[in-house]
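Q: Convert this sequence to structure tokens.
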Amino acid sequence: MNNKFLLFIIVLIFNFFTIVYSENANYIIAILRNKSDKNYNDESPKVQNEIDKLVNDKMNDIYDVIIENQDTYVLENGKVDEKLEELNSLPLEKLEKRNGKKRKFIFKNRTRPNNHFQKRFFDSINSGNSTEEEYIPIESTLVNHVCPVLNYYVVSAYLSDDTVKMVRKMKNIISCEKSRTYKPLDSIQNEYEKNKNISSNDENKDETQYYDIDAIKKETNWSNVEVQPISFETNHLSLISQSPYVNHNKTFDNNFYYPSSAGQGIDITLWMKV
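A:
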């Protein structure tokens, strides 16, 4: 009897810590209507509208999961994540069926405010026409649009460990991965500034410097040359200003060479497909 009681206490404690230490985070979610769909921007307005509607329906499904599983967002301090505060102001009673019509949220698309589905909805509201499904506009910080990628659409959602598992099992969800911040350019810039400061001080110049500025000027006809040393692996910038690395018996030159004008005076013309 004592052993069973002890086991019960252990399980209870384990479950408690599992809830307390669950991690809530933003997730990038990919929604695919049909494998045969073309790239979103190449599809007809009719198909784009169908994709937009499906995406909005899936966002409603994800939002429902969040609403129904708020207890899984408990933080280390024992309180529910404050990011769920927007749920307290939701007109949930308005979502109930009225006159036999389903009611859902229509998530405002801040990245593409003129998408077909959203535009048709607001046009119908302005004209006073009723729709088969009634929608309530919402600007959510928990679930929102990102953008179309190839033939699928990407949205983001703030999920707990438990709700992630539920979302991944939904139909039409082909990917659900934690959002991560990747900042390689910062490290490049810091490395560049560090090397630039060193090279600007004659007393601290590296005596083993292996490039010849005058030779580069002569070869390129540049009036002046800037050098950006890059120390991290898989550096492709150097290949832009040099030949491909084919001789593996020689030291690879990681420097990126470019004219001091850095593109000044160059006009760039873009052709956009309408």
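The chain has two domains: 17-178, 184-259.
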